[in-house]
Amino acid sequence: MKKIIVLLLVLTLAAGSVFAVGSKDSASAGGVTKLQVISVFQTENPEGPAELKIVEDFQRLNPNIKIEFSGVPMNDLFAKLTALATANDLPDAFFNTSEFKTKAVELGIVENLNNVFSKQELDAFVPNTLVDASVENTLVYLPFFATPPALLYRIDWLEAKGLKPPVTWNEFRTVAKAITEDSGAGRRYAFAQLAMRNGSAAARFLYMMRTFGIKELYQKPDKTWTTDIGSPKFKEMLKMFTDFANVDKISPPGVVETGYPEAANSFASGLTGMMITGPNAVGTIYVQNPDLRGKIGSVVIPKDTNHASTLVQNGYSLNPKSKGRDAFVKWQNFMTSDINCIYFNNISGRIPTKKSLSNAPELNTPAMKGFVEALNYSYMLPLHPGFAEIQDVVAEAYQNTIAKGMSVDQAAAIAQERALAVIKKYN
Questions:
Q1: Residue-wise pLDDT tens digits, 194-219
Q2: Cβ–Cβ < 8 Å for 169, 240
């Protein structure tokens, strides 16, 4: 396999040399086109170094193009982009997400990439990944990868107890209680539970809601928006989530201060043995603890009524005001080449979105299988400009019950009121 990858790299580099020609972009200065880019990856490891390597390879082949990154953490991205858009100070390109795409279109800060890339270039991607990266007929970003959420777990912890990975939430609870115990290194816990009041923690809560058949936002037949937040099923799910921390105690103390980095660290260190996350966590965990290779598996998120997942894609959007369009196309085509997608998957665990890589052996491993299967249960995030605000609504709800001791009924009522206010605001 390594020989094949090396061969593909040589071929890619040879093909890439075709692009090393003078740019016609009006942004050129002294024959060099500079692209100012906001990147979330540059605040993360191993994604940041991997992205830099790809860019360095690209710039060697295209010395007339220079990519200049500004790193912005994922949890600050939406506010940062909104502020820059208001100040009319956006860079040439910026990291974008499924959650923010509708807002980005509403703000008028994205070029329709259907008018930028050729049909042949776009046809190389799995069709539903392009749909998920679009708002109606506007392709907001080129989907570099997908990170469908699934349940990551320690194979060795479950096997030691004679347990199988959970399929339902009842089974999850049984497994979690069994593997939460004192060990030679101290207390170990089953669940790396994210309950911080931020987007990444709230996103995981929304995935769990969907497994109960609860929709955070959806349109009725008359096309008006509504929500299931505050419903009896919502209360049932919120109670389960609260009990994980406060009653079952299957999660380490301090879950309301636990975001993605803290959860990944707890898994890598052996403090926890299960985590709802995207496949990118595999790369993060291996960087911190290489000894866990071969000890990690993944399955789809447990269900109440149905399994659920999303594509959770990310990619780069082009500012319509940028004069570096040609340079952007060359960079993105290089970044999403097969060899670079496989390289990025090997480093980060994120799943390629190219048709040609659907059967890649790198995806057929215990650590990756659950994430690949999760693609079969993916749903489209609602195309509503208030989606990020709804994330904060549910985040406040679980913080109210876990940290403040508020009753589920009271927290659900507050969440319902806030959710309906968001809907009314945008109607």
A1: 999 999 999 999 999 999 999 999 99
A2: yes
Q: Which residue has the tokens 């400009």?
A: 385
Query: Which residues, at least 6 apart from 202, have a Cβ–Cβ distance to it below 8 Å?
Result: 391, 392, 394, 395
Find out whether 244 and 175 touch, Cβ atoms under 8 Å: no
CB 269 within 8 Å of CB 288: yes
Q: Which pLDDT value is given to residue 98? A: 84
- What is the spatial distance between Cα 201 and Cα 193, in angstroms, rounded to a whole number? 8
Same domain flag for 280 and 359: no
| Cα atoms in the 13 Å half-sphere on the side-chain side of 313 | 30
Q: Does a structural domain hold residue 375?
A: no
Looking at the structure, tell me whether residues 113 and 227 fall in a common domain. Answer: no
Does one domain contain both 34 and 113?
Answer: yes
**Rounded-to-integer distance, Cα 83 and Cα 89, Å:** 9
Assigned token pair, 99: 């959650």
| Residue 131 counted as domain residue | yes
CB 216 within 8 A of CB 234: no
Q: How far is it, in rounded angstroms, from Cα 211 to Cα 303?
A: 5
pLDDT of res. 280: 87
Instruction: Tell me the C-alpha distance between 334 and 336, whole Å.
Output: 5
**Does residue 373 fall inside a structural domain?**
no
Q: Are 91 and 370 in contact (CB under 8 A)?
A: no
From 25-39, 158-172, 291-305, 343-357, the region with the lowest mean pLDDT: 25-39
Q: What is the DSSP string of 205-263?
A: HHHHHHHTT--SSEE-TTS-EE--TTSHHHHHHHHHHHHHHHTS--S-S-GGG--HHHH
272 and 179, same domain (yes or no): yes
Q: How far apart are CA 386 and CA 401, in angstroms?
A: 23
Question: Is there a domain that residue 374 lies in?
Answer: no
Please answer whether residues 304 and 235 qualify as being in contact, where contact means their C-beta atoms are separated by less than 8 angstroms.
Answer: no
Nearest to 304 by CA among 229, 212, 209, 379: 212
Rounded to whole angstroms, how far apart are CA atoms 115 and 315?
17
Distance, in Å, from the CA atom of 214 to the CA atom of 229, rounded to the nearest integer, reads 7
Put simply, whether the predicted model's pTM sits higher than 0.85 gets the answer: no
Its domain, for residue 324, covers 2-146+313-366
pLDDT over threshold 50, residue 80: yes
